[in-house]
Amino acid sequence: GLLSRLQTSAPTVRTLSSSKSFSQNIPSCLWKLGRLNHVAIAVPDLEKAQSLYKDVLGAQVSETVALPEHGVYTVFVELGNTKLELLHPLGEKSPIASFLQKNKTGGMHHICIEVDDIKAAMTELKKKKIRILSEEPKIGAHGKPVIFLHPKDCHGVLVELEQA
């Protein structure tokens, strides 16, 4: 009857078993990827964005810092396990200005991941045909060397690597 039909039509569940651990399948590198440092959000109105996170959501929000070499104003929102970086254009040649022309209300701009050796990361990533958007690291918002990886090589995401 019904019970025998249910027993024969029940899906087979297969489990993945392997004698090797997952990490053994990853080639060893001269550098290591660390924690998520921040998620950057481009905003058309920095004061409104600061107010949302500080006054509405109750987060700890930094003062605005100008980074002329990157063409941005930055504000950091502390989240405990990571940060949000609010980005606003500084000057007409700001990469954030062109991003906001395409995304009028703002949006996620990039993610930042820490690395233990940015120079070794650059060397190895170039060998693996990952494009880096500058020849040398620049000093980022935290006063540490940073590089950006081309979004077309990172599944549509602009990735910033920061020296830990």
TrEMBL record:
It is an enzyme of class 5 (isomerase). Gene3D superfamilies: 2,3-Dihydroxybiphenyl 1,2-Dioxygenase, domain 1. Transmembrane segments: none annotated. GO terms for biological process: L-methylmalonyl-CoA metabolic process. Its EC number is 5.1.99.1. Keywords: Cobalt, Isomerase, Metal-binding. Pfam families: Glyoxalase_4. Residues 35-164 form the VOC domain. It catalyses: (R)-methylmalonyl-CoA = (S)-methylmalonyl-CoA. It comes from the Eukaryota. GO terms for cellular component: mitochondrion. GO terms for molecular function: metal ion binding; methylmalonyl-CoA epimerase activity. CDD domains: MMCE (cd07249). Methylmalonyl-CoA epimerase involved in propionyl-CoA metabolism. PANTHER family: METHYLMALONYL-COA EPIMERASE, METHYLMALONYL-COA EPIMERASE, MITOCHONDRIAL. This is Methylmalonyl-CoA epimerase, mitochondrial. It comes from Phainopepla nitens (Phainopepla). The gene is Mcee.
